[in-house]
């Protein structure tokens, strides 16, 4: 899983899964663009990579702003001359909308819905749209999107997130079948519950952390590095025949029907 001479652009790379992936690409020889809406954390991760002897450039881009997305891809090519890997990963709900995020369908807040679809899905399409002509001209590339098990099944009270992630899964498949002939592969990862600031915020709800762990056959949360390893594989030449896949990495959470066991031991 080497990325020597390859340019890898990671969105939401200032924290969690994106941070781990950006560091992973750099450790394996890739030149990395660390993109995030949070300039400080992007600079921090880029600095960490450089301090370890890698090559990284921080680019501030807000996935809610289409012009930022186009500029992020253009600046990547300006800086490093090419774009081999795009990891569409950024997502987060701004503090002002967070308390409206949990809602049953009939109570869906329009601003939460619009923001979720733009940042989590439309931005992925816009970044992909900007990257495809570049990859095609270069003779190939790999796109890895961060979807979720929440894009395969529903969670009670966050349907906007479920719909957005389901969109990412099928955007991945559509891109895969249309661009396979140009040597561009597109896959997504479907993480379960991963120990990042995004998940930790939900753990302020009493009992939610324990209930989450109890639902996972492995009995623990995933680590960001464990998701990065899957992204790195899918982006690498080792996955040369893999495209259009939605790769579940969830400690066994979705391998079960949900019907309780009759065993007591
Ligand atoms: N943590 C989990 O359990 C889990 C499970 C399934 C899927 N995911 C997905 O993984 C991805 C990464 O999440 P994470 O858990 O690492 O969270 P995180 O909060 O640790 O990292 C997300 C990063 O995205 C950035 N970001 C947020 N809004 C942005 C915007 N508008 N423009 C650009 N950057 C923005 C944040 O600043 C942050 O650095 C997300 O797509 C998330 O939906 C996470």
Strand and helix map with partners:
Layout: E1 7-11, H1 16-27, E2 31-36, H2 39-51, E3 55-60, H3 66-80, E4 85-88, H4 95-98, H5 110-138, E5 141-146, H6 159-179, E6 184-191, H7 197-202, H8 208-215, H9 224-235, E7 246-249
Nicotinamide-adenine-dinucleotide is lined by residues 11-12, 14-18, 36-38, 41, 62-64, 89-92, 119, 146, 148, 191, 193-194, 196-199.
Main features:
265 residues; alpha/beta; Rossmann fold; seven-stranded parallel beta sheet; 7 strands; 15% strand; globular; binds nicotinamide-adenine-dinucleotide
Write structural notes for this entry.
A seven-stranded parallel β-sheet has the order 3-2-1-4-5-6-7, sandwiched between helices. It has a single domain (7-193, 226-252), classed as Rossmann fold (3-Layer(aba) Sandwich), CATH 3.40.50.720. By secondary structure, the protein is α/β, with parallel strands linked by helices. The chain has helices at residues 16-27, 39-51, 66-80, 95-98, 110-138, 159-179, 197-202, 208-215, 224-235, and strands at 7-11, 31-36, 55-60, 85-88, 141-146, 184-191, 246-249. Bound molecules: nicotinamide-adenine-dinucleotide. Residues 11-12, 14-18, 36-38, 41, 62-64, 89-92, 119, 146, 148, 191, 193-194, 196-199 line the site of nicotinamide-adenine-dinucleotide (NAD).
């Amino acid at each position: 899983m080497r990325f020597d001479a390859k340019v890898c652009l990671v969105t939401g790379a200032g924290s969690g899964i994106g941070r781990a992936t950006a560091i992973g690409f750099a450790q394996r020889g890739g030149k990395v663009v660390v993109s995030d809406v949070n300039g400080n954390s992007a600079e921090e991760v880029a600095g960490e990579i450089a301090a370890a002897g890698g090559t990284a450039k921080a680019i501030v881009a807000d996935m809610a702003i289409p012009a930022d997305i186009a500029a992020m891809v253009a600046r990547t090519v300006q800086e490093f001359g090419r774009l081999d890997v795009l990891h569409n990963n950024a997502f987060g709900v701004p503090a002002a909308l967070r308390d409206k995020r949990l809602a049953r369908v009939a109570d869906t807040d329009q601003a939460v819905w619009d923001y979720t679809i733009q940042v989590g899905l439309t931005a992925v399409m816009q970044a992909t749209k900007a990257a495809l002509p570049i990859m095609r001209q270069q003779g190939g590339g790999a796109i890895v999107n961060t979807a979720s098990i929440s894009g395969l099944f529903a969670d009670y009270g966050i349907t906007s997130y479920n719909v957005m992630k389901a969109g990412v899964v099928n955007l991945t498949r559509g891109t895969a079948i249309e661009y396979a002939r140009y040597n561009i592969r597109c896959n997504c990862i479907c993480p379960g519950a991963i120990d990042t600031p995004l998940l930790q915020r939900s753990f302020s709800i009493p009992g939610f952390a324990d209930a989450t762990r109890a639902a996972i056959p492995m009995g623990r949360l995933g680590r960001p590095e464990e998701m990065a390893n899957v992204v790195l594989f899918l982006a690498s030449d080792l996955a040369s025949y893999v495209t259009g896949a939605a790769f579940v990495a969830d400690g066994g959470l979705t391998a079960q029907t949900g019907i309780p066991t009759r065993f007591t031991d």
